[in-house]
Amino acid sequence: MANVVVFDELGGPEVLRLTEVPLPEPGEGEARVRVEAIGLNRAEALFRAGGYYYQPTLPASRLGSEAAGVVEAVGPGVEGFAPGDAVSVLSVGMGMSRHGVYGDRAVVTADTLLPRPEWMDARTGAAIWLSHLTAYGALFEVGRLQPGDHVLVTAASSSVGTAALQLARQIGAVPIAVTRTAAKADRLLRAGAAHVVATDRDDLAERVREITGGEGARVVFDPVGGPGLADLARTVAEDGALIVYGWLDPRPAPLPMTWPLNVHGYGVHHVTRDAGRMRRARAFITAGLRTGALTPVIDRTFDLADIAEAHRYMEADGQVGKIVVTVRH
Ligand SMILES: NC(=O)c1ccc[n+]([C@@H]2O[C@H](COP(=O)([O-])OP(=O)(O)OC[C@H]3O[C@@H](n4cnc5c(N)ncnc54)[C@H](OP(=O)(O)O)[C@@H]3O)[C@@H](O)[C@H]2O)c1
């Protein structure tokens, strides 16, 4: 038998329930993974509540896109992975209701598996890829961030935000973290920010002008959107890049009129669906992990039995970094 998290209706964390199901067999092109750790992402809270870009198949929808564990069985047609292989799972397509990884076992498509080297523990393997691939593609492939450039990272305490701070540091760029609360300032400095703008204390545009000597940030990396996008555009350097990759503020966002400005709607698929970008990103991130320059910032770890509590914690916005769930076997 397997223990998996399902939900039967849209709603808050309380709709999540742990249930026993017969051990699922992998089909064509699929693998079954014995899950050891799960990385939580805001997208999963949105999916659970019906606010994501596609809707769950109810009842008994599965949930979760990122995990680490060991391959237990493979279906027909799977090449490159075999039972016993340590892996990470990064599943960012539209199949979460079927392939969700919250549980002690998950059946996923084999193209969402990444080999996990023996030096990478399960918590790191579950927490590193979505955050760092998302930030890597935006900052380097789209934003063309260079050493010495300022990069403004909004929602900087998110898992993607903390990854962006580290990646910018790694190439010698200057990361400016934005948070809504000054209470997180010290933790953001420890996570790699060169400067912190707390919007409950500072005027965003004025502070960024000060920090950048009036020039603005070469790249602004934003998952918030909403009406604040117009103000945010005023922090971008002339002809710089405003890269929007989420809608934490679900209200409509105006098209900024501070031209010349390059506005990008960005998704991690920009990296994961392109073999060349994915090869570069994996090489860069793996090299950073090996030297210690990169490491997932893990805010707190929960047990799988406390999955609803972990979602409540995520949605209370107190974290700096990734929330991880571990699985006891
Ligand atoms: N496009 C893609 O491919 C892609 C990939 C991965 C993630 N994402 C998106 O990236 C975002 C972050 O994901 P995550 O899993 O890293 O998040 P997370 O770890 O849950 O972080 C959330 C943080 O964002 C800030 N925040 C929350 N609501 C906000 C609001 N309404 N306005 C401003 N700030 C807000 C809070 O920080 P403060 O309280 O400190 O401000 C909070 O701590 C999500 O929108 C997610 O969907 C997109």
Automatic annotation (TrEMBL):
SMART domains reported for this sequence: PKS_ER
Alphabetic keyword roster: NADP, Oxidoreductase
GO molecular-function terms, A-Z: NADPH binding; oxidoreductase activity, acting on NAD(P)H
Gene3D superfamilies (UniProt xref): Medium-chain alcohol dehydrogenases, catalytic domain, NAD(P)-binding Rossmann-like Domain
Full protein name: Zinc-dependent alcohol dehydrogenase family protein
Domain named Enoyl reductase (ER): residues: 11-325
Domain of life (superkingdom): Bacteria
InterPro entries reported in the protein's UniProt record: ADH-like_C, ADH-like_N, ER, GroES-like_sf, NAD(P)-bd_dom_sf
Keyword Nucleotidyltransferase attributed: no
Pfam families: ADH_N, ADH_zinc_N
